[in-house]
Predict the 3D structure of the following.
Amino acid sequence: MQEPPLVQAENLSKSYRSGTGNLTVFSGLHFEIHAGERLAIVGESGAGKSTLLHLIGGLDRPSAGRVLYRGEAVSELSDAGLAAYRNRHIGFVWQIHHLLPEFTAVENVFLPLLIRGVARPDAEREAASRLADVGLAARTNHRAGELSGGERQRVVLARALVTRPALLLADEPTGNLDQRTGENVFALIEDLHTQFGLTSVFVTHNVAFAARCDRVLRLQNGMLYEEAPGSATA
Ligand SMILES: Nc1ncnc2c1ncn2[C@@H]1O[C@H](COP(=O)(O)OP(=O)(O)OP(=O)(O)O)[C@@H](O)[C@H]1O
Ligand SMILES: [Mg+2]
């Protein structure tokens, strides 16, 4: 039997209830993400890119339709099932880092393993190894609050990968960094994509980064369009 795509979205819709009525962000989306792909999601501010990433990552539920992961319906899981899905399969990288500033780099990175029930010495060893992978071996015991913006984003990457996820979801991972640091972080993500055999989805406003992906999907007026990498405008 042929393997199903890593992710499938079927008739995916999301509406938010707002003060005066309903806001439909998108509806009836269909797409697939295949194992090993680097996929960029682009579109104007407010188009629904983060919303879409949240649905793929099981951080939110669709208003209609469903998300399948390896052929299984994620959107139909219980809250506990969704939490387990995120911990087991997904690595998240956001524009805002969400690190605990008073905790050290290694403590921030091993937390997802403790949540999974891994013993602390093992979790610590694995976390230190991921910090070395992102070039931060020398910052293992720095508090997150003492690190530079680029270093924090590297810690976030180490934390995202410590659970060995199949799917990396990154929402403007370089959005808060200067151009040069952003370039270094994106190049690191590309290396890690290969090293860890990831499937990666990037929301980005950076045209050059989108052009380096295998596929580009544009969200516009609630619909999704496939674009040739390199032809994107923003
Ligand atoms: N929890 C919410 N409740 C109500 N409306 C929301 C909620 N989250 C997002 N929205 C609305 O949904 C639309 C899409 O938001 P989303 O954050 O997905 O956009 P985006 O494409 O990621 O934009 P940006 O590039 O600015 O990050 C926006 O109009 C936003 O105001
Ligand atoms: Mg967003």
